[in-house]
From TrEMBL, chains A, B:
SUPFAM superfamilies: Chorismate lyase-like, Winged helix' DNA-binding domain. InterPro entries: Bact_HTH_transcr_reg, Chorismate_lyase_/UTRA_dom_sf, TreR, Tscrpt_reg_HTH_GntR, UTRA, WH-like_DNA-bd_sf, WH_DNA-bd_sf. PANTHER family: HTH-TYPE TRANSCRIPTIONAL REGULATOR TRER, MANNOSYL-D-GLYCERATE TRANSPORT/METABOLISM SYSTEM REPRESSOR MNGR-RELATED. NCBIfam families: trehalos_R_Bsub. The keyword Transcription regulation applies. It comes from Dubosiella newyorkensis. One of its GO terms (biological process) is negative regulation of DNA-templated transcription. It comes from the Bacteria. This is Trehalose operon repressor. One of its GO terms (molecular function) is DNA binding. Keywords: DNA-binding, Repressor, Transcription, Transcription regulation. Pfam families: GntR, UTRA.
DNA sequence: AAGTGGTCTAGACCACCGA
DNA sequence: CGGTGGTCTAGACCACTTT
């Protein structure tokens, strides 16, 4: 099912494999209709997906221009989790260390962040991400245990997202993220290999399920020299 | 024209004005068809825009849930330029100082960034952004003069984007951005009020017109404590 | 059983570009 | 003038939720 999505994946693949090279035009919508034996609307849905993710630029009365799919490395974008990054093209020698795993009632700050009361239960997990032998990233996750039950340190050392999506079958849908720069605390200096840096790039993220439930608040702190965020954005209007 | 866009704007406004409150559902697609006297497809286009910009979450067989439109401040996202930020809700006492304005052939690095030859002409503009009396941001713009002619220091001190879009009538379409953290050079320490910080948040941006012409490469460096980037992202699949 | 959003189709008109 | 993408319409079937 979801024909338009199949067409999107197919075209995306062919652009990445240079079958449709940068600077050339895709077949017209009329031709794509025939190629994929589908209606124009369906083809256009696929093309819109390609445009919004930066693969093509649609030009009126000319066609769909294939863009140069440049470097796509270390995106915080698209809800990518650390575990997914490992699997990506940019493969690091990486390791996750669970430095603390707690379960209990949240303090006032976390109650507010997760929008829960003092009687609720929350997992508080701290993890250190090691890349090429250096402790680079510190992740703090605050997870609503009522929504995400059954976590343990073993799952945390693997991938919490995979557990949520595959084991629990809960669909992660969207996130609000904020990137700032903060001073490193003494504890953070001890936990990470900061090499003299006293600032950290701080990515705070509110993560939601498909039914718009806020299930997790994450604070991810990166050593400045190892942080990189890439974005493709279209201008409104 | 562009009915679906009008509907989008109307609904967006009503969500921002709390006419449709967070946590409630929008009228069903069927009702919206009648409300706006349009077809279902047109209504759905508007709803998709709302969803992709984070205003609603569509839930199958239930409806379009209105999300809590939180803080939207200082987004680098969406191609927002400094001049637009000024006009936004978060109004700063701000001022732009053109610290250097040059016109000539580009060096090898800029030739590569702008994808032009050594015989081409490029504007190289440095601007300091003052917010509340403090010099916080340093912008370097490298602009292809063949595409964007007629720039001068006066325009640079106002808004280059406005000049491109309104005076020249050229449509700015999309950008590729990269955020990293870099060490401040001695020159940058002199130009900005860094208050002891020796790192800067560096936003590099390749900016394109609607016909996918690369017209401008920008490097924008921010004092770490004044930098903030907010993003809404949907999970693929 | 009624209502919802997700998908797909077929056809239409427009504005504009290039031959 | 034919081809392009942009927009809009009307109708259809599906899977599922709610009543």
């Amino acid at each position: 099912m979801a024909k338009y999505h199949d067409i999107y994946e197919d075209l995306k693949g062919k652009i990445e494999e240079k079958e449709y090279g940068a600077g050339t035009y895709l077949p017209s919508e009329n031709e794509l209709m025939k190629l994929y034996d589908s209606s124009r609307d369906t083809v256009r849905k696929a093309l819109n997906l390609l445009a919004s993710s930066g693969y093509i630029q649609k030009e009126k009365r000319k066609g769909s221009l294939v863009l140069d799919v440049g470097l796509i490395s270390f995106p915080v974008s698209g809800l990518t989790s650390f575990k997914e990054l490992e699997r990506s093209a940019y493969r690091y020698h990486s390791k996750t260390i669970v430095s603390s795993f707690e379960y209990g009632h949240p303090n006032a700050r976390i109650q507010k962040k997760l929008n829960v009361g003092p009687e609720s239960f929350v997992y508080e997990i701290k993890r250190i991400r090691k890349i090429d032998g250096e402790k680079i990233i510190l992740d703090e996750d605050y997870i609503n245990a009522k929504i995400i039950p059954g976590l343990d340190a073993q799952i945390a050392s693997d991938s919490i997202y995979e557990y949520i999506e595959n084991t629990l079958g809960l669909p992660i849908a969207f996130a609000r993220k904020e990137i700032t720069v903060v001073k490193a605390s003494e504890e953070e200096k001890k936990l990470l290999d900061l090499e003299g840096y006293d600032l950290l790039v701080c990515v705070k993220s509110y993560n939601f399920l498909e039914d718009a439930t806020l299930f997790c608040y994450t604070v991810s702190k990166h050593r400045p020299d190892k942080f990189r965020f890439v974005e493709f954005s279209r201008r409104e209007k």
